[in-house]
Amino acid sequence: MQILLAAALTASLVLPFATVHAAEKLNGAGASFPYPVYSAWAYSYNKATGVRLNYQSIGSGGGQRQISARTVDFGASDAPLTPAKLKKHNLLQFPAVIGGVTPVVNIPGLQAGQLKLDASTFCSIFLGKIAYWDDAMVRKANPALQLPHKKITVVHRSDGSGTTAIFTHYLSETCPAWKTTVGEGKAVQWPKGIGGKGNEGVANYVKRTKYSIGYVEYAYAKQSKLAHTRLRNRSGSFVEPNFETFSDAAKTANFNSKRHFHLWLTNAPGKKSWPIAGATFILLAKEKKVVNRKTVQFFDWAFKNGDKTAQRLVYIPLPAALKNKVRAYWKSQGI
Question: Where would a tag sit more exposed on the chain, N or C end, judged by fewer CB atoms within 10 A?
Answer without folding.
Answer: N
